[in-house]
Write a structure and sequence with these properties.
Number of strands: 8
Strand content: 25-35%
Structural class: alpha+beta
CATH superfamily: Methylpurine-DNA glycosylase (MPG)
Largest sheet: 8 strands, antiparallel
Distance between the termini: 19 Å
DNA sequence: TAAGAGATACTCT
DNA sequence: GAGTATCTCTTAA
Protein backbone atom coordinates (compact mmCIF):
# COMPACT_ATOMS: atom_id res chain seq x y z
CA UNK A 1 0.00 0.00 0.00
CA UNK A 2 1.52 3.30 -1.12
CA UNK A 3 1.03 6.13 1.37
CA UNK A 4 -1.59 8.56 0.12
CA UNK A 5 -1.43 12.34 -0.12
CA UNK A 6 -3.51 12.65 3.07
CA UNK A 7 -0.68 11.01 5.03
CA UNK A 8 1.55 14.00 4.26
CA UNK A 9 -1.10 16.63 4.78
CA UNK A 10 -0.51 16.80 8.52
CA UNK A 11 1.83 18.51 10.96
CA UNK A 12 5.39 17.98 9.66
CA UNK A 13 6.64 16.57 12.98
CA UNK A 14 3.81 14.01 13.10
CA UNK A 15 4.60 12.87 9.56
CA UNK A 16 8.33 12.62 10.36
CA UNK A 17 7.58 10.33 13.31
CA UNK A 18 5.14 8.18 11.32
CA UNK A 19 7.49 7.72 8.38
CA UNK A 20 9.76 5.64 10.63
CA UNK A 21 9.37 1.96 9.66
CA UNK A 22 7.83 2.75 6.25
CA UNK A 23 9.28 1.29 3.07
CA UNK A 24 11.14 3.43 0.54
CA UNK A 25 11.19 2.01 -3.00
CA UNK A 26 13.45 3.19 -5.81
CA UNK A 27 13.00 1.77 -9.31
CA UNK A 28 15.71 2.06 -11.92
CA UNK A 29 14.64 0.41 -15.19
CA UNK A 30 13.92 -3.18 -14.16
CA UNK A 31 15.84 -2.94 -10.88
CA UNK A 32 14.06 -2.50 -7.57
CA UNK A 33 15.82 -1.12 -4.51
CA UNK A 34 13.96 -0.94 -1.20
CA UNK A 35 14.71 -0.15 2.42
CA UNK A 36 12.98 0.45 5.74
CA UNK A 37 13.19 4.08 6.89
CA UNK A 38 15.15 4.21 10.15
CA UNK A 39 15.78 7.92 10.64
CA UNK A 40 13.94 11.14 9.72
CA UNK A 41 14.01 14.82 10.59
CA UNK A 42 11.23 17.44 10.46
CA UNK A 43 11.83 20.87 8.94
CA UNK A 44 9.02 23.38 9.19
CA UNK A 45 8.46 26.77 7.59
CA UNK A 46 8.90 30.33 8.78
CA UNK A 47 8.75 29.33 12.47
CA UNK A 48 11.78 27.02 12.11
CA UNK A 49 15.09 28.93 11.75
CA UNK A 50 16.99 25.74 10.80
CA UNK A 51 14.76 25.09 7.79
CA UNK A 52 15.50 26.08 4.22
CA UNK A 53 11.99 27.52 4.20
CA UNK A 54 12.71 29.89 7.11
CA UNK A 55 13.41 32.66 4.60
CA UNK A 56 11.43 33.76 1.61
CA UNK A 57 10.70 31.71 -1.45
CA UNK A 58 13.82 30.98 -3.51
CA UNK A 59 14.57 28.79 -6.49
CA UNK A 60 15.81 25.99 -4.26
CA UNK A 61 13.22 25.93 -1.49
CA UNK A 62 10.05 26.58 -3.49
CA UNK A 63 9.09 22.89 -3.45
CA UNK A 64 8.74 23.05 0.35
CA UNK A 65 5.95 25.60 -0.17
CA UNK A 66 4.21 23.48 -2.77
CA UNK A 67 1.93 20.41 -2.74
CA UNK A 68 2.56 17.65 -0.16
CA UNK A 69 3.87 14.19 -1.08
CA UNK A 70 6.43 15.56 -3.56
CA UNK A 71 10.14 14.86 -3.33
CA UNK A 72 12.55 17.68 -2.48
CA UNK A 73 16.12 16.79 -3.43
CA UNK A 74 18.94 19.27 -2.98
CA UNK A 75 22.68 19.34 -3.12
CA UNK A 76 24.95 20.19 -0.20
CA UNK A 77 28.58 20.16 1.02
CA UNK A 78 29.73 20.13 -2.59
CA UNK A 79 29.15 16.37 -2.88
CA UNK A 80 25.93 15.05 -1.47
CA UNK A 81 22.24 14.94 -2.30
CA UNK A 82 19.56 14.95 0.39
CA UNK A 83 16.12 13.35 -0.03
CA UNK A 84 13.08 15.02 1.55
CA UNK A 85 9.30 14.63 1.29
CA UNK A 86 7.08 17.70 1.41
CA UNK A 87 4.74 17.36 4.42
CA UNK A 88 2.72 20.04 6.16
CA UNK A 89 -0.71 20.73 7.60
CA UNK A 90 -2.92 23.34 5.97
CA UNK A 91 -1.91 25.82 8.66
CA UNK A 92 1.80 25.68 7.78
CA UNK A 93 3.19 27.71 4.90
CA UNK A 94 5.98 25.19 4.24
CA UNK A 95 7.54 21.99 5.57
CA UNK A 96 9.38 18.80 4.63
CA UNK A 97 10.74 15.61 6.18
CA UNK A 98 14.39 14.72 5.59
CA UNK A 99 14.98 10.97 5.10
CA UNK A 100 18.25 10.47 6.96
CA UNK A 101 18.61 6.70 6.98
CA UNK A 102 17.20 3.40 5.74
CA UNK A 103 17.92 -0.27 6.30
CA UNK A 104 18.36 -2.10 2.96
CA UNK A 105 15.82 -4.80 1.96
CA UNK A 106 15.81 -5.52 -1.78
CA UNK A 107 18.65 -4.88 -4.20
CA UNK A 108 21.32 -4.93 -1.51
CA UNK A 109 23.96 -6.06 -4.01
CA UNK A 110 23.30 -3.04 -6.24
CA UNK A 111 23.48 -0.65 -3.29
CA UNK A 112 26.77 -2.18 -2.17
CA UNK A 113 28.09 -1.68 -5.68
CA UNK A 114 26.90 1.95 -5.80
CA UNK A 115 28.57 2.69 -2.48
CA UNK A 116 31.76 0.72 -2.95
CA UNK A 117 31.71 -0.78 0.53
CA UNK A 118 30.50 -4.09 1.86
CA UNK A 119 29.06 -3.46 5.32
CA UNK A 120 25.26 -3.56 4.89
CA UNK A 121 24.83 -1.75 8.20
CA UNK A 122 26.75 1.24 6.91
CA UNK A 123 25.80 1.69 3.25
CA UNK A 124 22.56 3.64 3.80
CA UNK A 125 22.70 4.92 7.39
CA UNK A 126 23.08 8.60 6.47
CA UNK A 127 21.28 11.05 4.16
CA UNK A 128 24.16 11.42 1.71
CA UNK A 129 24.80 7.68 1.78
CA UNK A 130 21.30 6.54 0.92
CA UNK A 131 20.99 8.89 -2.06
CA UNK A 132 24.28 7.51 -3.36
CA UNK A 133 23.22 3.89 -2.81
CA UNK A 134 19.88 4.47 -4.54
CA UNK A 135 21.30 6.68 -7.29
CA UNK A 136 19.17 9.69 -6.38
CA UNK A 137 20.12 13.12 -7.77
CA UNK A 138 18.51 16.35 -8.93
CA UNK A 139 16.68 14.35 -11.61
CA UNK A 140 14.59 12.91 -8.78
CA UNK A 141 13.64 16.37 -7.51
CA UNK A 142 9.94 17.29 -7.49
CA UNK A 143 8.52 13.80 -8.16
CA UNK A 144 5.21 12.55 -6.82
CA UNK A 145 5.94 9.96 -4.09
CA UNK A 146 2.29 9.00 -3.66
CA UNK A 147 2.22 7.32 -7.07
CA UNK A 148 3.90 4.17 -8.27
CA UNK A 149 6.84 5.63 -10.19
CA UNK A 150 10.63 5.74 -9.91
CA UNK A 151 10.44 6.58 -6.19
CA UNK A 152 7.60 6.02 -3.72
CA UNK A 153 6.93 5.23 -0.06
CA UNK A 154 4.60 2.46 1.15
CA UNK A 155 3.54 0.71 4.34
CA UNK A 156 6.36 -1.12 6.10
CA UNK A 157 6.77 -2.41 9.63
CA UNK A 158 5.44 -1.15 12.95
CA UNK A 159 8.39 0.16 14.94
CA UNK A 160 8.62 -0.80 18.59
CA UNK A 161 10.44 2.16 19.99
CA UNK A 162 11.12 5.55 18.37
CA UNK A 163 13.97 7.65 19.69
CA UNK A 164 13.80 11.47 19.74
CA UNK A 165 16.93 13.62 19.34
CA UNK A 166 17.98 17.11 18.31
CA UNK A 167 18.52 17.48 14.58
CA UNK A 168 21.96 16.79 13.13
CA UNK A 169 24.35 19.17 11.42
CA UNK A 170 22.49 22.40 12.11
CA UNK A 171 23.42 25.41 14.25
CA UNK A 172 19.96 26.90 14.87
CA UNK A 173 17.04 25.62 16.94
CA UNK A 174 19.11 22.78 18.37
CA UNK A 175 16.73 22.61 21.36
CA UNK A 176 14.03 21.14 19.12
CA UNK A 177 14.00 17.32 19.21
CA UNK A 178 12.71 16.79 15.70
CA UNK A 179 14.99 13.88 14.75
CA UNK A 180 13.35 10.44 14.95
CA UNK A 181 15.10 7.08 14.68
CA UNK A 182 14.97 3.35 15.43
CA UNK A 183 17.65 0.73 15.90
CA UNK A 184 17.35 -2.33 13.66
CA UNK A 185 16.69 -4.49 16.74
CA UNK A 186 13.59 -2.37 17.46
CA UNK A 187 11.88 -3.28 14.19
CA UNK A 188 9.33 -5.54 15.83
C1' DT B 1 37.75 4.11 18.94
C1' DA B 2 37.53 8.80 18.92
C1' DA B 3 38.58 13.07 17.19
C1' DG B 4 39.92 16.23 13.45
C1' DA B 5 40.24 17.94 9.01
C1' DG B 6 39.71 18.02 3.95
C1' DA B 7 36.97 17.38 -0.16
C1' DT B 8 34.10 20.18 -3.24
C1' DA B 9 30.31 22.98 -5.65
C1' DC B 10 25.88 24.99 -5.18
C1' DT B 11 22.77 28.60 -3.20
C1' DC B 12 21.84 32.83 -1.15
C1' DT B 13 23.40 37.53 0.54
C1' DG C 1 32.20 35.55 -1.01
C1' DA C 2 30.57 32.80 2.84
C1' DG C 3 28.21 29.06 4.54
C1' DT C 4 26.41 24.42 4.13
C1' DA C 5 20.13 19.40 6.82
C1' DT C 6 27.81 15.20 5.07
C1' DC C 7 31.17 11.43 4.60
C1' DT C 8 35.52 9.27 4.77
C1' DC C 9 40.15 8.97 5.76
C1' DT C 10 44.03 9.75 8.72
C1' DT C 11 46.10 10.04 13.01
C1' DA C 12 46.86 9.00 17.68
C1' DA C 13 46.11 6.74 21.96
Amino acid sequence: MILKKEFYERETITVAKQLIGKKLTRKIKNLKLTGIITETEAYRGRDDPASHAATNLTNRNQIMFGPVGMSYVYFTYGMYFMLNVVAKSKKQNAGAVLIRGIYPQDGIKIMIKNRGMKDVNKITNGPGKLTMAMNISMKENNLNLTKKSSIYISEGIIPKKIKKSPRIGITKAIDKKWNFSIMSKDYF
